[in-house]
């Protein structure tokens, strides 16, 4: 419950410095402005601040983006960011007030889905966000690994170019590719400035970005200088590998794996990145999982029909959602030819789940069958959870390649 001394409103230009200070203090960042890159993408009319009297003590923003959902559809999404509460004012309901204000606003605007990256895993479920809506594979692999004989590498010339030369091409490629990949987001000009901001403070001892172009894709990476008595064994830290064709993906991976003076590659990528199946020794590719996007169904009846489904189902879902109570209750969820309709019903529930579980499953990331085994989904009519699980799954794991 929010403290009654608190007030909340959207911010104006004159609030930006205070907003930046709260963020910096909350994220333990340098208050000198080093971490202000996120302010570049902030939409002031969607950025909220909480005040205790005249003192700003909490911040949060929503970025208006599009997300690609199954069926290669782009739908509006509220991308929640810079949630921060000044130390000394925590655990008195400031973040709860921000979350509530954002979600009620999205409900009124008709934005059916919200997403975020969580700084800590124990914060956001209580607000109805579902974990592992997309996952991340943290891959590390040695260079010079051979490919499986079935993997073709073309003789296309791959060129390392300057950032200025790369940028227009990368934007075009990304814009086409993001429309085909579940979990990818639209980018504005400022998004590019933030995503590939190449400030010293972000490099953590690595080099600036290197940009390499293929006619059908691109890669961006940094280098960490490493070596031993046998010679240089530098690490390539891949930031983006975006390709319009499978051929470009193989060619660019080969280019990176064959880089002279490099000993290892690391890449935060999709859980099902095909590289595991491309190399001749898949065990040499180490893969660690991490949660990535957390997804919140803002409106059950508007969100579920936005995507395409893999199979037809007809189930009554009992949704529990105390934070957004308009979702509470029973909904008949019917999919015909992959298209869903959702309507209120008095019929008995086949399955009971909370909003967070539905959010986890929405893009085809977490499986409802697994959430059932985790005691998060309850099946009343045998067979319905398995049928729903199959309907929600897609050909690939959803993946969001960027933190916002
Ligand atoms: C999308 C993003 O921006 S992710 C970034 C999130 N921000 C940060 O990590 C910056 C550092 N942390 C903070 O600024 C704050 O601690 C916040 C924003 C995480 C939480 O703010 P608070 O105002 O303290 O949260 P609030 O008081 O509304 O807490 C609501 C509930 O969540 C719980 N909670 C809040 N933060 C945490 C946490 N870090 N870990 C576990 N539980 C938490 C509270 O205990 C409370 O539980 P209750 O309802 O059972 O009493």
Concise summary:
By secondary structure, the chain is of the alpha+beta class. It has helices spanning about 15-25, 95-110, 165-180, 190-195, 200-205, 245-255, 275-280, 300-305, 355-360, 370-375, 385-390, and strands at about 5-10, 45-50, 55-70, 75-85, 115, 130, 135-140, 160, 210-215, 215-225, 225-230, 230, 235-245, 260-270, 285-290, 295, 315-320, 330-335, 340-345, 350-355, 375-380. The strands form four sheets. It has a seven-stranded mixed sheet with strand order 1-2-3-4-5-16-6.
Q: What is the correct CATH architecture of the largest domain? A: 3-Layer(aba) Sandwich
Uncertain stretches of 5 or more adjacent residues: none
Ends: how far apart? 28 Å
User: What is the number of strand segments?
Assistant: 21
Count every helix, treating DSSP H or I runs of 4 or more residues as helices. 11
Helical fraction: 10-25%
What's the rounded overall pLDDT mean? 96
Bound ligands, each once: acetyl coenzyme *A
Q: Structurally, how many domains make up the residues? A: 3
Domain N-acetyltransferase: 6-146
Binding site for acetyl-CoA: 83-85, 91-96, 119-120
Protein name: UPF0256 protein
Subunit structure: Homohexamer; trimer of dimers.
Explain what this protein looks like in three dimensions.
The protein has 404 residues and is of the alpha+beta class. The protein folds into three domains: 6-111, Gcn5-related N-acetyltransferase (GNAT) (Aminopeptidase, 3-Layer(aba) Sandwich), CATH 3.40.630; 136-290, Aminopeptidase; 300-392, Nonspecific Lipid-transfer Protein, Chain A (2-Layer Sandwich), CATH 3.30.1050.10. Helix content is 24%, strand content 33%. The strands form four sheets. The chain has a seven-stranded mixed sheet with strand order 1-2-3-4-5-16-6. A seven-stranded mixed sheet has the order 8-9-10-13-14-7-15, sandwiched between helices. Strand 13 (234-243), helix 6 (246-257) and strand 14 (262-270) form a beta-alpha-beta unit. The protein binds acetyl coenzyme *A (ACO). Acetyl coenzyme *A is lined by residues 26-27, 80-85, 90-96, 116-120, 122-123, 126.
């Amino acid at each position: 419950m929010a403290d009654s001394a608190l007030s909340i409103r959207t911010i104006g230009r004159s609030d930006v410095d205070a907003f930046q200070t709260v963020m910096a203090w909350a994220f333990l960042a340098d208050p000198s402005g080093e971490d202000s890159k996120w302010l570049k993408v902030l939409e002031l009319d969607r950025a909220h601040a909480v005040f205790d009297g005249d003192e700003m003590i909490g911040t949060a923003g929503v970025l208006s983006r599009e997300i690609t959902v199954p069926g290669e559809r782009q739908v509006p999404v509220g991308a929640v960011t810079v949630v921060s509460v000044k130390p000394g004012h925590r655990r008195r309901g400031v973040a709860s007030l921000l979350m509530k204000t954002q979600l009620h606003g999205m409900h009124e605007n008709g934005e059916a889905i919200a997403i975020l990256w969580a700084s800590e895993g124990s914060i956001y479920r209580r607000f109805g966000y579902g974990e592992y809506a997309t996952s991340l594979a943290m891959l590390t692999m040695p260079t010079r690994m051979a490919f499986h004989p079935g993997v073709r590498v073309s003789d296309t010339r791959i060129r390392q170019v300057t950032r200025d030369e790369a940028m227009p091409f990368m934007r075009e490629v990304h814009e086409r590719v993001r429309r085909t990949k579940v979990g990818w987001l639209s980018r504005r000009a400022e998004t590019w400035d933030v995503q590939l901001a190449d400030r010293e403070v972000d490099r953590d001892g690595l080099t600036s970005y290197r940009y390499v172009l293929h006619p059908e894709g691109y890669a961006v990476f940094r280098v960490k200088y490493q070596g031993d008595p046998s010679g240089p064994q530098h690490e390539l830290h891949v930031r983006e590998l975006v390709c319009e064709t499978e051929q470009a993906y193989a060619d660019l991976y080969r280019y990176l794996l064959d880089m002279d003076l490099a000993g290892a590659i690391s890449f935060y990528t999709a859980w099902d990145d095909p590289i595991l199946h491309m190399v001749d020794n898949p065990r040499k590719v180490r893969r660690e999982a991490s949660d990535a996007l957390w997804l919140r169904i803002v409106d059950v009846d508007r969100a579920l029909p936005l995507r395409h489904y893999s199979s037809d189902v007809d189930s009554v879902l009992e949704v529990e959602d105390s934070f957004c109570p308009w979702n509470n209750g029973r909904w008949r969820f019917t999919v015909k030819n992959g298209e869903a309709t959702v309507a209120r019903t008095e019929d008995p529930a086949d399955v009971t789940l909370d909003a967070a579980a539905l959010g986890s499953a929405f893009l085809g990331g977490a499986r409802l069958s697994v959430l059932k085994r985790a005691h998060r989904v309850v099946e009343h009519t045998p067979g319905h959870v398995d049928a729903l699980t199959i309907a929600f799954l897609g050909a690939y794991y959803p993946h969001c390649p960027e933190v916002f």
